[in-house]
Amino acid sequence: MGKNASSRVQGRASREAFIAATGRLLRRQGYAATGLNEIVARSGAPKGSLYFHFPGGKEQLALAAMEQTGEQLRAAIAAIMGSCETTMDGLSVLIDALGSGLEASWAQTVSSSCHRAASQSNGPDSVVPASPLAMKIQSSIGVR
User: Were both Cys, which of 15, 21, 48, 61 would link to 54 (CB 3.0–4.6 Å)?
Assistant: First the structure.
């Protein structure tokens, strides 16, 4: 492979690494809490290539990550619906899959929030009060 072809492959890998890291961070902590330095660190791609691939900065990068996630979701829905004999079977499998994904996402968010709260506590015996929203969610799903 020539030097130019190798550079294109590395550039494409950097671009994809930025998009993948951004998607993971946006799902976990949202747009406002996601910074470019964190994206660069999580991607493993060279910081200098960020603005080469995304001259619009964080906004352009977030848009690319959301577009990729949307395409992945559309493909997954098509695969589920195409693998079932009836529309009702497909919808049932799809609802189960979406529910499982939401449960996993919620569990990861709670775990991450609890880890942050514990790291900010005043020691192993201190109690970090739950927010009213967290208590309402926990109550509605039967978590105590």
Answer: 61
Whether 44 contacts 71, CB under 8 Å: no
Does the predicted TM-score (pTM) go above 0.90? no
Burial (CB < 10 A; 0-12, 13-18, 19+), residue 125, is exposed
* Residue closest to 95 by CA, chosen among 110, 77, 119: 77
Nearest Cα to 108, choosing from 53, 29, 52?
Answer: 29
SS3 content of the chain, % helix, strand, coil (to 5): 75, 0, 25
Phi, psi of 93 (to 5 degrees): -65, -40
User: Side chain identity at 139, as an amino acid letter?
Assistant: S
Predicted confidence (pLDDT) per residue in 104-127, tens digit? 766 666 666 555 555 555 554 444
